[in-house]
Amino acid sequence: MELQWIDDFLALSQTRNFTRAAKVRCTTQSAYSRRVQRLEEWLGAPLFYRQSRPVSLTPAGEEFLTRAHRLREDIFDTRRAVLSTSSHFKKTLRIYTTNTLAATFLPAWLAESKLENYSLIVASIAGCLEALKRKHADMSLIPHFGREDMLPGFDVQDIGEDRLVLVSAATQKRPVSCANNKLSGAVMVYTPGTAYGMQIAAMLDQHHIHIQESPVCESASAEALFAQVKAGLGSAWIPEILFRGSKVKRCAAPSFFDISYKILLIKPPQERNAG
Fold first, then answer.
1. Are residues 46 and 56 in the same domain?
2. What is the pLDDT of residues 155-177, one digit of tens each?
3. Residue 91 pLDDT > 60, yes or no?
4. Is it the case that residue 222 has pLDDT exceeding 60?
5. Is the domain of 136 the same as that of 168?
6. Is residue 73 part of a domain?
7. Is there a domain that residue 275 lies in?
8. Is residue 240 very low, low, confident or very high in pLDDT (cuts 50, 70, 90)?
9. 186 — alpha (psi -120 to 50), left (phi > 0) or beta?
10. What is the pLDDT of residue 49?
11. pTM confidence score
12. Number of domains observed in the structure of the chain
């Protein structure tokens, strides 16, 4: 299994066209097709119906799609974890957090907490929790949509709150609208399997809302989607802490489109002395 095979698969699952996918992956169609075929040989099953137009996923392809994003995320989390073991400090506090919190909430929190000599590792939410479980992290700051009792064995502290909001720029050419249980316009989404993506999908499903058109863009990064929102390319659910103070505005949408969450400080359980 190679990382580029996963990226190749994701490109084709999104474009549903070998020529366009090869162009996205900056290679020739013949070389691209061979790489997809090697992935299928490695998995032992065909992933695409090549005869259909557009190309469609086989049942095996649908199954792999549910795992491909997480595999890619885990690979990069592993790399970050390995790099974090090399430190300029003899003994350092290892703090894991997400990219959004690292760029927004964390600096003020660190200044208030007066922490010094720390290593900051950016990872996915799953990567942050896994680092705690494996004792690679001394603490993690993560967004959390559930209850604290869903994190058994950890020392959990509620240190903030935020919400995901569907926003757009004034320059957006195809503004979004919600009518008759359909969300239409230029919508950008999070990749399947991401924490934000799952929460948004669950909310839409709960209220029987369907995205009418194919998404303009799919990304695992809130920062990447926010940059495109600011450029007027589409609307996306963005953490309020990220767009606060910018010129983007909340879209005209039902109030239940806003998805609140807590910001948690999580530490391994404190060891208690016997007796």
1. yes
2. 899 999 999 999 999 999 899 99
3. no
4. yes
5. no
6. no
7. no
8. very high
9. beta
10. 92
11. 0.69
12. 3
Q: For Cα atoms 28, 31, 37, give the angle at the middle one, nearest 5 degrees.
A: 135
Task: State how far the Cα of 234 lies from the Cα of 211, in Å rounded to an integer.
Answer: 13
Question: Which residue bears the tokens 């590792």?
Answer: 121
Mean pLDDT of the chain: 86
Q: Is residue 272 part of a domain?
A: no
Q: Which helix (H) or strand (E) is 239 found in, with range?
A: strand 236-239
Which of 146-184 are b and which e, b meaning 16 or more Cβ less than 10 Å from the residue's Cβ?
eeeeebeebebeeebebebbbbbbeebebebebeeeebb
Q: Label residue 212 by pLDDT band (50, 70, 90).
A: confident
Cα gap 37→46, rounded to integer Å = 8
Q: Three-state SS for 220?
A: coil
91 and 152 in a single domain? The answer is yes
Go through the chain and tell me how many residues it has. Answer: 275
CA–CA dist 134, 259 (Å, integer): 30
Going by C-alpha positions, the residue among 40, 96, 49, 99 that lies closest to residue 68 is 40
**Phi, psi of 221, rounded to the nearest 5 degrees:** -105, 120
Boundary residue ending a domain (16, 38, 68):
68
Range of the domain at 143: 78-162+263-267
For residues 174 and 254, membership in a common domain is answered with: yes
